[in-house]
Protein backbone atom coordinates (compact mmCIF):
# COMPACT_ATOMS: atom_id res chain seq x y z
CA UNK A 1 0.00 0.00 0.00
CA UNK A 2 1.34 3.49 -0.85
CA UNK A 3 2.52 5.84 1.85
CA UNK A 4 -0.01 7.88 3.78
CA UNK A 5 2.46 10.64 4.71
CA UNK A 6 -0.03 13.36 3.88
CA UNK A 7 -3.03 11.72 5.55
CA UNK A 8 -4.54 10.11 2.45
CA UNK A 9 -3.29 7.24 0.30
CA UNK A 10 -2.03 7.79 -3.20
CA UNK A 11 -4.72 5.36 -4.36
CA UNK A 12 -7.40 7.77 -3.18
CA UNK A 13 -5.64 10.70 -4.84
CA UNK A 14 -5.23 8.64 -8.02
CA UNK A 15 -8.97 7.92 -8.18
CA UNK A 16 -9.89 11.57 -7.71
CA UNK A 17 -7.37 12.59 -10.38
CA UNK A 18 -8.79 9.93 -12.70
CA UNK A 19 -12.33 11.27 -12.22
CA UNK A 20 -11.24 14.87 -12.87
CA UNK A 21 -9.21 13.86 -15.93
CA UNK A 22 -12.35 12.17 -17.28
CA UNK A 23 -14.28 15.42 -16.81
CA UNK A 24 -11.66 17.96 -17.84
CA UNK A 25 -8.76 16.25 -19.61
CA UNK A 26 -5.26 15.12 -18.75
CA UNK A 27 -3.43 18.28 -19.76
CA UNK A 28 -5.75 20.58 -17.81
CA UNK A 29 -5.43 18.55 -14.61
CA UNK A 30 -1.66 18.20 -15.03
CA UNK A 31 -1.51 21.98 -15.28
CA UNK A 32 -3.64 22.34 -12.12
CA UNK A 33 -1.38 19.92 -10.23
CA UNK A 34 1.76 21.56 -11.57
CA UNK A 35 3.30 18.58 -13.30
CA UNK A 36 3.94 17.33 -16.83
CA UNK A 37 1.03 15.53 -18.43
CA UNK A 38 3.28 12.53 -19.16
CA UNK A 39 4.08 12.26 -15.45
CA UNK A 40 0.40 12.48 -14.60
CA UNK A 41 -0.33 9.70 -17.11
CA UNK A 42 2.35 7.54 -15.44
CA UNK A 43 0.80 8.25 -12.05
CA UNK A 44 -2.62 7.21 -13.34
CA UNK A 45 -1.03 4.06 -14.75
CA UNK A 46 0.18 3.16 -11.25
CA UNK A 47 3.63 4.66 -10.79
CA UNK A 48 4.57 6.11 -7.42
CA UNK A 49 5.84 9.68 -7.90
CA UNK A 50 8.87 11.17 -6.17
CA UNK A 51 8.49 13.23 -3.01
CA UNK A 52 8.01 16.69 -4.53
CA UNK A 53 5.46 15.40 -7.02
CA UNK A 54 3.61 13.49 -4.30
CA UNK A 55 3.39 16.73 -2.34
CA UNK A 56 1.97 18.51 -5.41
CA UNK A 57 -0.61 15.76 -5.84
CA UNK A 58 -1.64 15.83 -2.18
CA UNK A 59 -1.85 19.63 -2.24
CA UNK A 60 -4.03 19.49 -5.36
CA UNK A 61 -6.19 16.80 -3.74
CA UNK A 62 -6.74 18.92 -0.63
CA UNK A 63 -7.70 21.92 -2.77
CA UNK A 64 -10.05 19.74 -4.83
CA UNK A 65 -11.62 18.23 -1.72
CA UNK A 66 -12.12 21.67 -0.18
CA UNK A 67 -13.77 22.87 -3.39
CA UNK A 68 -16.16 19.90 -3.33
CA UNK A 69 -17.10 20.67 0.28
CA UNK A 70 -17.64 24.34 -0.60
CA UNK A 71 -19.84 23.44 -3.58
CA UNK A 72 -21.90 21.04 -1.47
CA UNK A 73 -22.45 23.77 1.12
CA UNK A 74 -23.47 26.23 -1.59
CA UNK A 75 -25.82 23.64 -3.06
CA UNK A 76 -27.44 23.04 0.33
CA UNK A 77 -27.89 26.79 0.82
CA UNK A 78 -29.46 27.17 -2.63
CA UNK A 79 -31.85 24.29 -1.92
CA UNK A 80 -32.81 25.92 1.38
CA UNK A 81 -33.49 29.25 -0.35
CA UNK A 82 -35.48 27.56 -3.10
CA UNK A 83 -37.62 25.79 -0.51
CA UNK A 84 -38.27 29.16 1.19
CA UNK A 85 -39.28 30.74 -2.13
CA UNK A 86 -41.60 27.83 -2.95
CA UNK A 87 -43.19 28.13 0.49
CA UNK A 88 -43.78 31.88 -0.04
CA UNK A 89 -45.20 31.25 -3.50
CA UNK A 90 -47.64 28.64 -2.16
CA UNK A 91 -48.78 31.16 0.45
CA UNK A 92 -49.64 33.70 -2.27
CA UNK A 93 -51.94 31.45 -4.25
Describe it for me?
The protein has 93 residues and is mainly α. It has one domain (10-92). Helix content is 78%, strand content 0%. It starts with 9 loop residues before the first helix and ends with a helix.
Number of domains: 1
Characterize the largest beta sheet: strand count, sense, and whether it forms a barrel.
none
What is the string of helix and strand elements? HHHH
Radius of gyration: 19 Å
| Inertia-based shape | elongated
Structure, briefly:
The chain is mainly alpha-helical.
List keywords for this structure.
93 residues; mainly alpha; 0% strand
Task: Give the helix/strand layout.
Elements: H1 10-24, H2 26-33, H3 37-44, H4 51-92
Helix pairs in contact: 1-2, 1-4, 2-3
Amino acid sequence: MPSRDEGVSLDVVREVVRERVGETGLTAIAREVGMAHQSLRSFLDGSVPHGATRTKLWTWYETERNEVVRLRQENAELKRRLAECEKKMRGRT
